[in-house]
Write the structure tokens for this entry.
Amino acid sequence: MSALRLAGVTAGYDGGTVLHDVHLDCPEGTVTCMIGPNGAGKSTVLRVITGLLGADAGRVTLGGTDLGALPPEGVLRAGVAMVPQSQALFPHMTVRENVLMGGYLIRRDRALVKARYAAVADLIPIVAARAGDPAGNLSGGQRRMVEVARCLMLEPRVLLFDEPSVGLDPRSLAAVTGLIERLHADGRTLLLVEQNVRLGLRLATHAVVMESGRVLMHGPAEEIAGHPQIADLYLGGRAAVPAGQASEAAERRDDG
Amino acid sequence: MQFLQAVIIGLLIGGVYALMASGLTLIFGVLRVINIAHGALLVLAATMTWLLWRETGVDPILAAVATTPVMLGLGWLIHRGVITRLPQGSPAMTVLATFGLALIIEGVLNVTVGNIFRSATPDYFAQSFRVGGLALPKPHVYGFAAAVVVLGGLYLVLTRTWTGRAIRATAQNPAGAALVGVSGAGTAALAFAIGTATTGVGGSVLSVLYPFYPASHYDWIARLLGIIVLGGLGSLPGALVGAVVLGLAETLTATYGSLQWSTLVFYIVIMVVLLVRPQGLFGTRLREDALA
Ligand SMILES: Nc1ncnc2c1ncn2[C@@H]1O[C@H](COP(=O)(O)OP(=O)(O)O)[C@@H](O)[C@H]1O
Ligand SMILES: [Mg+2]
């Protein structure tokens, strides 16, 4: 069953149209990885889904609900949350306050907020370990974990991640990756944008390739990973390396 | 003893300044708008207080109970009618528009109540509390108490309520606040209204402590801007410290030097601090886009 679906979405900023007739389908419980060069419009797709940017044409639906008609708050209530590319936390608030703010929309139900906080703190240890520290004092990796924790306060059906691996040291990266795997195992639907294509495709069940605001390719992750053009552009330049050495070259890159 | 007396009075005045500056810095923190009309709103509230006191004999500081809701509503109207209509991200336009607003308020006061000095003089006006060998003027003590009530209340609202957390979240990271479902527009309106409402109590205290006339707002906005620039634009603790520094600088200079020098000393302090910390005492570094 399809959880999140974009059909013929066209959108842009004052500067002009960025997305052209974008179709996207994220079946329930899958992990979709969106790849493509800088400026391809990947973050813009996520922004349209969250309602932070209105679409000029096309439909965004969750289950059967039309998300396009909802304000950002309504999209959140419908069950879609995002961990954005850049700093999303409130630097002068404590980690605890930051995570609690994730429950802003359920604030009237104190018991629920409390229970969700306990569950989130249980799942993501940094929340309890640094509860009283200002979020601005955390490392990049720790902040990313707190951002995810904050999202989970609403128990979203769909989680959008914009470049979750950017700027993380190997240990934080492992923690974030583990968390994504865990969320997938819990049956949530994930859509991630990832510059580290190898990592992204490993985590994903499905993949979408974007270029210049258009969907170039989409399909199961292995299929996309195995596509010669993708291998060429993103996985270590098979064309530049004689066949047979390609996977070896890629391995070495992984080590580095 | 003279020193102690000067320090205590400086602290009392600092508390009153902090009350007057709190709304200005709160509004800047959330909306990135420097409300040049804040001084005029204080003078307007002081004038309303004075009228209430003269007509009904009510205590001028207690009159804030009546003027605060009026200022709250006026703040909401100003936000709705002026601030939201300005082009986004244009500090020049907001400064110009709120300066215009200040002139309008000044003009309306000139026409309605006249261009004369006023001061509310309740019976305790010239009395002092005697503590040890110190004489603490009652108006200053009451004004300080009102400031503590308002600032304490503001602190509790900002830290203990969801509304307050939404306001702080929006000030610290508007994009992040939108992600958790906080309405930027609603929060901005609320912050502007609350920030303006503080001029209700601020104006009441002003009417007793300082003689005022419609154009007094120039003096006040200059002082208040000095305070929040010193403390760090948008920071409430910063405004508190900046206000106390101003209060102490004025009182100590007036006690040991001359009255003429008292405000000048404060501006010298500001310049020295800004040379060392351009973001102010409590400000996070002011980015290029912070005013946008
Ligand atoms: N806020 C914005 N205003 C105007 N143009 C933008 C804005 N954000 C992104 N763009 C433009 O939209 C295009 C796609 O950007 P984005 O979606 O961020 O790409 P990606 O995430 O794939 O790197 C780029 O050309 C970028 O310059
Ligand atoms: Mg991007």
